[in-house]
Amino acid sequence: MTGITLLLLLFLQTSLGNSTTAAPNNIPNPSLILIRDPAVHADLKLTPLQLQQVQTLTDQLDIPMWKMRGMQQESGFTELHRLISITNTQLEQILTPPQINRFHQIVLRAQRLEGLFRDDIAKVLNITTQQQSDLRTIIDAVQKELTELNSRKSQGEQAKVIQIEMAAVNQKANDRLKEILSNQQRVEWSKLLGPEFDLNKLGDVRYKAPEFATETEWLHSPPLQLSSLRGKVVVIHYMAYG
User: Fold this and answer.
1) What is the pLDDT of residues 172-205, one digit of tens each?
2) pLDDT by residue (tens digit) across 79-134?
3) Which of 18, 52, 121, 230 yields a CA-CA distance of 20 to 30 A from 216?
4) Nearest to 234 by CA among 218, 204, 212
5) Which residues contact 57 (CB under 8 A, 6 or more apart)?
């Protein structure tokens, strides 16, 4: 699992509860994050117009995404799927069919082994119940190891060392996968993933800052807007309760 998928997992677990067992419909789908990533834009070879259209789309999604942080798990996942559906519908108008196909391949690559639990993928590959059980054992072990590695990284251990160990963990998982899937399943899985994509390039994503609240009384200033502060250094000091 990559940092981009871990980011979405942590967001969902923090915002929507701490359940670590993903139902088929709740498999982490990083498309809302991936569509913002410059590495994905470069792979898709987006035109200047497409980049502008994607930016407009993601700007519209930012506030609903952050509002999910205050939702209960069930309603939060419902909202997440709604936003993903909106994104997919809009992307069909923005991207060409080959670009859409490639984007879905990158999403599947970011999901890694979790993608094998998607209903559509499991159906195409004819994944058996026993295979799903074996896969879950592998995934749980990988998640535990990668979580520990990310913890070491956050404590200041060299990123290069962590990256090498992460690659080793993922390679070991892929080797185990070969033992579980049949030859035909491995061929079909490779087709679904498409050409190689360097997941280590992911992570340079940005979000539009929400506007300041204007319905409350301001001190020492009339209500300000972000547009009026563009190009200036702004320090925000706030207190949170809860």
Assistant:
1) 998 999 999 999 999 999 999 999 998 888 887 7
2) 888 999 999 999 999 999 999 999 999 999 988 888 998 999 999 999 999 999 99
3) 230
4) 212
5) 35, 87, 90, 91, 94
* Residues 202 and 110 sit within 8 Å (Cβ to Cβ): yes
Q: Are 166 and 112 in contact (CB under 8 A)?
A: no
The amino acid at 33: I
pLDDT at residue 11 is higher than 70: no
H helical segments located in the chain: 3-16, 31-34, 38-44, 48-67, 73-94, 97-111, 119-125, 129-154, 159-180, 183-193
d(CA 172, CA 5): 19
Handedness of CA 70, 72, 78, 80 (dihedral sign): positive
* CB-based contact 212:224 (threshold 8 Å): yes
Q: Tokens for 148, please give them.
A: 């520990």
Cβ-contact 109, 170 below 8 angstroms: no
Could you say which DSSP state residue 216 is in? S
By the 8 A CB rule, do 68 and 79 touch? yes
Per-domain boundaries in the chain: 3-201
> ∠ at Cα 196 (193, 200), nearest 5°?
110
